[in-house]
């Protein structure tokens, strides 16, 4: 880095000190409670490196980072992509701003980051790893550990990288719904029984002696029928944890499984720990990005954190973020959070109105003018424009920040640039009340008879009002934001979508499903039904959108083989990729490995008949067992009774720890 580059970074950092400070203050006024954030100014190449490293400055040496860096650099060079921000889940969090971005982008990133830091700190799924992460230090220690092994002349670098490759192939095969805990050591763990024949073969005796002393009948009686206790006793989702406890390495020279070397055991465990650290970010991608987009928009646009000469640039920035094609977590999350807010605000208004004497859910449409109600919900003039009403603001009003008002009247704070300083959380909630915003003007009137009846049924008969105006004036404007904060604490993407992706949301936002059709040999829109849209999205986010694989037996068929099972959800595995993965698992188990799954079988005749009848063919679901012994693959059909425990009945919605249900 040249001296000019360093001075330029320092100059930009100086310009961003005030926006960073004020963004944090505004975030806290809005009810957020973020980790402290350290902001760093970096250049183009440094940004590409950080993206490649997953948001951290140092990771263990491996070829994957170089590949990721090259892909990121080419994407930005040839496709025009732009990295707006990187922030990591840490305490304090670290956020990186690219020096070449304009001020509008920098402010947008800062407001976005403050919301991310709040989500990291307050969402319970991040607490499954650690209540106060020191991630940068942890990842640096891991890097140093791997570097030490690489520098050891007795250990081949190629062996280390190959070992890491095997582990990374399974990095999503952890139990991300349970708190992280180090894998048990072999000494304290129940060990698979193993095959007696394998044990006898390890004894240095001749075949003749072995057959005389340990004849076939005796061996079969000891081995039993395979129906005894298995390890694990229940399917184990943490495949990496099971391998860390029970796995062995395959030794090519002896052709047998041997205990892990110390470096193999430690590298496996540290990579498993990293997988648990990154899991919450994958579990909450839609929620987290939507949360950050919501508060970025609220601060930059609604609260005019972007100056007048920056707003067009910011609008372009937001359009790029929300307008990217495909399944866009920013857009989906942003719209769902708005829906959570609007729905809770509407319920609060309806609850108040149903307490008015003479108003019932049956006569609601005839007795309540919802246009007049919405107009009465407009923020008071002194809240909508507190600077113009500075002298009229009441310091005893809960919507007014008493200390800030006194400082503003003394000329000690810049309320022209930051009018929000004059208001409290309650005041800002009224100032930005969602139901009166132009884009949501029809939401209150969209209430259905079914919703009115449901609210009335569970409404306590308290706080009666004599008039509609009295009820509206008593509406709690913070209800929507309070509900958002509650949801932010406990949900992940699957439960979030399950709870809030309703018929109303799907219809309002024009969501639909599409499928590949065999009859037309292309993709077609297939449904606009909320249940279908929800199920499609569930499949995208359950288990990070990856196949759910669990350990079913560590002593499969009494031969010390590992049996994995694909918990089939209607989407079949790519068999070739499954085979490649089994080859990796073999290296971590050291003995033959098998996988049972379900495939959809269709013949050309079935497809042709369905095409003539203008319908989709009905595939046959067939259980398969794929076995790899280190050299060859075997595939056999399984009877229906052997796949009952993995057959899909519906999408698995059970993604919360039991105590949170």
From TrEMBL:
Q: Which PANTHER family match?
A: STAGE V SPORULATION PROTEIN R (PTHR30029:SF2)
All residue ranges annotated as the SpoVR-like C-terminal domain in the record:
547-598
Q: What Pfam families does the record tag this protein with? A: SpoVR, SpoVR_C
Q: Which residues form the SpoVR protein-like N-terminal domain?
A: 15-347, 471-544
Q: Which InterPro entries match?
A: Spore_V_R (IPR007390), SpoVR-like_C (IPR057008), SpoVR_N (IPR056174)
What protein name does the entry list?
A: SpoVR family protein
Ranges for region Disordered:
639-661
């Amino acid at each position: 880095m040249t001296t000019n580059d360093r001075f330029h970074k320092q100059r930009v950092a100086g310009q961003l000190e005030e926006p960073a400070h004020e963004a944090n203050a505004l975030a806290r006024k809005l009810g957020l409670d973020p980790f402290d954030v350290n902001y760093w100014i970096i250049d183009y190449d440094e940004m590409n490196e950080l993206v490649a490293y997953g948001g951290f400055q140092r990771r263990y040496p491996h070829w994957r980072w170089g590949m990721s860096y090259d892909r990121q650099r080419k994407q930005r060079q040839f496709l025009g992509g732009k990295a707006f921000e990187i922030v990591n889940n840490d305490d304090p969090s670290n956020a990186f701003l690219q020096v070449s971005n304009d001020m509008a982008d920098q402010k947008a990133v800062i407001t976005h980051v403050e919301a991310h830091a709040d989500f990291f700190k307050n969402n319970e799924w991040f607490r499954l790893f650690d209540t106060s992460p020191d991630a940068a230090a942890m990842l640096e220690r891991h890097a140093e550990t791997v570097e030490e092994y690489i520098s050891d002349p007795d250990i081949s670098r190629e062996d280390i990288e190959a070992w890491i490759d095997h582990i990374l192939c399974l990095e999503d095969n952890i139990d991300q719904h349970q708190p992280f805990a180090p894998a048990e050591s072999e000494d304290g763990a129940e060990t698979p029984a193993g095959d007696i024949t394998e044990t006898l073969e390890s004894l240095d005796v001749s075949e003749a002696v072995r057959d005389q002393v340990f004849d076939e009948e005796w061996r079969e009686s000891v081995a039993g029928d395979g129906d005894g206790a298995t390890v694990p006793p229940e399917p184990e989702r943490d495949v990496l944890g099971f391998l860390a406890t029970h796995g062995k390495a395959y030794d090519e020279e002896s052709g047998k499984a041997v205990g892990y070397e110390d470096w193999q055991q430690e590298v496996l465990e540290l990579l498993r720990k990293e997988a648990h650290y990154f899991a919450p970010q994958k579990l909450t991608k839609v929620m987290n990005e939507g949360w950050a987009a919501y508060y970025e928009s609220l601060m930059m646009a609604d609260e005019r954190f972007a100056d007048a000469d920056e707003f067009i640039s910011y609008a372009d920035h937001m359009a790029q973020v929300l307008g990217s094609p495909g399944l866009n977590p920013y857009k989906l999350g942003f719209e769902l959070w708005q829906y959570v807010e609007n729905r809770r605000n509407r319920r609060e208004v309806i609850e108040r109105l149903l307490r008015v004497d003479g108003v019932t859910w049956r006569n609601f449409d005839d007795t309540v003018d919802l246009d007049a109600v919405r107009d009465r919900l407009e923020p008071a003039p002194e809240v909508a424009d507190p600077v113009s009403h500075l002298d009229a603001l009441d310091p005893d009003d809960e919507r007014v920040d008493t200390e800030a008002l006194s400082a503003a009247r003394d000329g000690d704070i810049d309320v022209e640039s930051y009018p929000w300083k004059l208001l409290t959380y309650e005041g800002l909630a009224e100032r930005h009340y969602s139901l009166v915003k132009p884009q949501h003007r029809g939401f209150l009137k969209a209430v259905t008879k079914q919703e009115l009846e449901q609210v009335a049924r569970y409404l306590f008969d308290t706080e009666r009002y004599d008039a509609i105006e009295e009820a509206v004036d008593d509406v709690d404007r913070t209800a929507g934001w309070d509900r958002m904060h509650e949801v932010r604490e406990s949900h992940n993407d699957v439960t979030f979508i399950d709870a809030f992706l309703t018929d109303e949301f799907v219809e309002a936002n024009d969501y639909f499903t599409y499928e590949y059709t065999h009859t037309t040999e292309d993709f077609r829109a297939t449904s606009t039904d909320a249940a279908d849209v929800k199920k499609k999205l569930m499949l995208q986010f359950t288990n990070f959108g990856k196949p759910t694989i669990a350990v079913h037996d560590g002593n499969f068929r009494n031969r010390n083989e590992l049996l994995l099972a694909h918990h089939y959800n209607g989407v079949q595995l790519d068999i070739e990729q499954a085979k490649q993965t089994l080859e990796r698992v073999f290296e971590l188990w050291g003995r033959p490995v098998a996988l049972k799954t379900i495939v959809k079988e269709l013949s050309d005749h079935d497809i042709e008949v369905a095409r003539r009848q203008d319908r989709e063919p009905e595939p046959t679901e067939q259980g398969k067992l794929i076995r790899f012994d280190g050299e060859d693959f075997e595939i056999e059909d399984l009877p229906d009774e052997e796949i009952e425990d993995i057959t899909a009945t519906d999408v698995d919605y059970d993604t919360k720890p039991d105590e949170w249900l």
